[in-house]
Write a structure and sequence with these properties.
The complex is a heterodimer.
Chain A: E1 3-5, E2 12-14, E3 19-23, H1 37-45, E4 53-59, E5 67-73, E6 79-83
Antiparallel strand pairs in A: 1-2, 3-4, 4-5, 5-6
Chain B: H1 5-13, E1 31-37, H2 41-54, E2 59-62, E3 78-79, H3 86-106, E4 117-121, H4 124-139, E5 147-148, H5 149-155, E6 171-175, E7 179-180, H6 183-196, E8 200-202, E9 207-213, E10 216-222, E11 225-234, H7 240-246, E12 254-263, E13 273-276, E14 281-285, E15 291-297, H8 309-322, E16 331-341, E17 348-351, E18 357-361, H9 371-384, H10 398-401, H11 407-410
Parallel strand pairs in B: 1-2, 1-11, 2-8, 4-13, 11-18
Antiparallel strand pairs in B: 3-7, 4-6, 5-6, 9-10, 10-11, 12-15, 12-16, 13-14, 14-15, 17-18
Classes of the chains: A mainly beta, B alpha/beta.
């Protein structure tokens, strides 16, 4: 079972208490036209999905309600790092067709 | 040797020692006209149809583990075609129709049991959705009717009879042609049939790299050396994206674990496959008497191939809520498979940005029931270089075009 200490409220929560927000993405642009169509395709549909360390968003849903970022190994489920969002920036996903 | 009654009798009398090896275990040749990556149901079916339907027998199937050791051996063996969108209905019903004659075609008993797939309806909203879907299915020419609460209870005597049940059953939506199949037999049957047509099945052979030339795949690197290939089909479920990354392009898929579990065997108590999307579990009884239980997919990305306790707890709670008597059974085994989920929950079939590389992946939680169709359509793409008419909606370009086949909502399943 995945157990993570929330970096905001410092309480340990298990996976059912942490809302999963998906693989982390860069902030959504305030103006949609800042991204090209291929960039939107990448942002909407493509994720890095590694067999190894991935950065994901989780929310301390049963506790303080704040979002944070987790670096987790998808093969072992080991938690490698936990931090509030600005501390773990991520690139925009690439796309193909 | 054919699996005939006479041969079964002869072998039975001689202690079953005379059966020949079902498929060869060949050393890979230096090159093949077509290489299929992935020795699960989809890859083996592709090789079988390449050889049988298209006459292309210079084919190798590369499997990193053993035949049927991935998702083909890790599912809950259910088959059905109760999809809503016409594109999906055509795909999955093709699969079911092929499955209906597959045992005879492959000379291998796949133990198809069309016991009926029963979708429980717990409230008026679900009833409305089910009626909508039933109308779509009739338009698509696929069987599916709604039965009332009394009929559902007649079909499922073990159903929670309490008037104040947390999830009261107000009706059900059976697809009578749905049911179960012996899952390993599908892999073994296709492997044996493909091998007889001259296909080389190479196990314990992971793809370590691709040799590209002029934008095309020309060879595959494996631990034992390099195998030349004229064209390639990749049907490696979640690991397909790893192969395409070697070819230089990503896929819109994420990997998650889907878990299942089985109880100790008991006498026959459940005739149908029952799914309750509201509670998030589905269950059927095997011929041995065990109850096979599946449930929700873990939402976060994982390649771990093993289960998690929160999901086991949710699934078991859901089944016990539906069938209180099952609470006295012990779980015997539990397992997880890695499913490849696309943004619209529909598979990716057909061409890729690499001209001689074709894809069949992204079946997600419905890969087992899609095996014959996946094999037929990928074989068509590899053999002809063109997309099959039934696969046109399922190409990789649909994400750029925003032309999704959005089964995330339409299939109405819990994951």
């Amino acid at each position: 079972m995945i157990v993570i200490r929330c970096p905001h409220c410092q309480v340990e929560r298990h996976e059912d208490e942490l809302f999963y927000g998906g693989e982390a993405l860069p902030p959504r642009p305030s103006d949609p036209l800042q991204l090209s169509d291929p960039e939107w395709t990448g942002r909407l549909f493509f994720r890095s999905n590694p067999e190894g360390a991935v950065i994901e968003d989780r929310c301390c849903a049963a506790g303080c309600g704040h979002w944070f970022r987790v670096r987790r190994c998808t093969a072992s489920h080991a938690i490698l790092d936990v931090a509030p969002p600005p501390a773990m920036p991520v690139p925009l996903p690439e796309f193909s067709s | 040797m054919r699996h005939s009654f006479l041969n079964l009798l002869r072998q039975g009398l001689s202690g079953h020692r005379g059966w020949p090896q079902a498929w060869r275990n060949p050393e890979p040749r230096r090159s093949y006209e077509a290489v299929i990556v992935g020795g699960g149901g989809h890859g083996l079916a592709t090789a079988y149809y390449l050889a049988g339907e298209h006459g292309l027998t210079d084919v190798a199937v590369l499997e990193r583990g053993w035949i049927g050791g991935g998702n083909t051996g890790r599912n809950t063996t259910n088959v059905r075609s109760d999809y809503m969108y016409p594109e999906s209905a055509a795909l999955y019903d093709l699969s079911l129709r092929v499955y209906e004659g597959l045992g005879r075609e492959l000379d291998f008993n796949i133990m198809l049991s069309q016991r009926g797939w029963l979708f429980l309806i717990h409230d008026l909203h679900q009833m409305e959705t089910a009626r909508h879907k039933a109308n779509w299915m009739q338009c698509n020419g696929i069987d599916g009717v709604i039965v009332d609460s009394a009929e559902a209870r007649r079909m499922l005597p073990a159903l929670n009879p309490a008037a104040d049940a947390r999830y009261p059953v107000i009706g059900a939506f059976p697809q009578r042609r749905g049911g179960t199949i012996r899952h390993d037999a599908v892999a073994w049957g296709y492997a044996r049939a493909a091998d007889r047509l001259g296909v080389d099945i190479i196990q314990n052979c992971a793809v370590e790299g691709l040799v590209m030339n002029g934008g095309c795949v020309t060879a595959v690197q494996i631990s034992r050396g390099t195998i030349g290939c004229g064209r390639m089909g990749v049907a490696a479920a979640a690991w397909t994206a790893r192969v395409t990354a070697m070819a230089g392009f990503p896929l819109p898929m994420t990997s998650h674990i889907l878990q299942a579990m089985v109880t100790e065997p008991v006498r026959r108590c459940l005739d149908h496959v029952v799914i309750s999307p509201a509670t998030g579990a589905y269950v059927n009884q095997t011929r041995k008497g065990e109850l096979v239980i599946g449930g929700i997919m873990d939402l976060y990305q994982s390649f771990s191939q093993r289960g998690t306790y929160p999901s086991i707890e949710k699934v078991v709670a859901a089944v016990v809520e539906m069938f209180p008597a099952f609470s006295s059974l012990k779980l015997m085994r539990h397992w997880a498979g890695v499913v490849d989920i696309t943004p619209d929950r529909s598979p990716i079939i057909g061409p890729s940005p690499v001209p001689n590389l074709h894809l069949n992946c992204g079946c997600g939680t419905g890969g087992f029931k899609a095996i014959p169709a996946g094999g037929l359509l990928l074989a068509h793409a590899v053999a002809t270089g063109r997309q099959h008419a039934l696969a046109e909606a399922f190409g990789l370009e649909r994400f750029r075009l925003n032309a999704l086949v959005d089964e995330a909502a339409a299939s109405g399943i819990a994951h």
